[in-house]
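Q: What does the assembled structure look like for these inputs?
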Amino acid sequence: MTIDPKYFELIQAEIDGEIDDAGKAELENFLAESEEGRTVYEELETLCRSLDSLPPLEPPAHLRHVLLNQAPVKAPPQPSPSLLQRLFSGPLLGYVGVFAAGVALTLALLDSGQISRDAFDDVTGLVGTIADSRHLASEHGTISIDESEVAGTVTLRSAGPLLIVDFDLSARQPVEIVAGYSDKTIWFNGFAQLESTGTSIAAETGAVTVRMEGKRRYAVYLNNPGMRPARIDLRFMANDEVIHEAQLSFSETE
Amino acid sequence: MSEPNDTKLMERCSNGDRQAFEMLLARYEKPVFNAAYRMLNSPDDARDVTQTVFLKVYEHLEQYDPKYRFFSWIYRITLNESINWLKKTNRLDALEGDTADSASGPEQEASNQQLSEGMQAALMTISPDYRAVIVLKHLLGCSYQEISEVLEISEKMVKSRLYTARQLLQQTLTERGLH
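A:
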């Protein structure tokens, strides 16, 4: 090509809609006289049109929910906190409060005959786990659900003998999730939820059933005393119909 | 009622307003995801980068300087995170992008699809710096001045990078019989 570089710049500016009046006039004169210039213009315009028409992709349906839930909750600034507020302003105590609420809710709903009273002894461990599970617990797998009724993820983690089933879901309508485990030596160890209320839970031998609606982040704790390989069968139901099934597995070698 | 602007939403986010964050997400989730996708050529990687971008935005709310436009901040994070991802996965060097299947039928739709795939493959053959200006200009619709703000380079450099990037793309597409 023997075109003066300044005309390349003008052609590009014209196609990009960034040319001024003087440049436009200069370019028009040049293009009227230069066939080579017109060819360059057409080629660049075609390329830019192709680039402009690249189709946008839709992000995965549950991504927004995941993004919302991964954002840590920032408390609004408090002008003059009371002593009680200061005491509970630390994250650890905050989670203790949340966990206590979860345990209270659980105790209210559970058939007490199914629970070992020792199950709630290790409150500190549970609080640490839910507060910072990514650092304190090993991850054994995540399933994604992307149904019209419910979307999000469920992750299985473990910390010592604790299995932590971490639900991060958004449901448009009431849904019921049954987490079944066939190993009878595993028992329900607790429940905690973050930033939300209104999730109910019921446990029986071999299964925990959670009912929820809206955006929810909560964890079900199972005690696996022998740390044996285990499988959690998840069944999602809405309007008494199964809408999704998935499995999560814990392997002792992991 | 008019939608609150980005700066107002960021201010509300800093005060713990989750709804404001949700509105920013609704506004920027798709462009961020698509920019990452065009940089990385993988929807899964784009999803992960999008997650990182919004987490960073949320974690660094206090560092946002309202005298700059929010989009330039979030797009800069997106492009930087995409480049970091390429580094992490040893894909920083321009790749020999997959050639689109030239055996496709003559139908217009198939031809468009072929061109679109060919273009994405060609994008992967240019360096991330050049790819970034193409993404900002053609996917996110930024002006020279906005690109200069996002990338923190002069407008002259923007024009120069755009010019070179387009030349390289055109060359690749021509070689592959797609242009």
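The mean pLDDT of chain A is 76.
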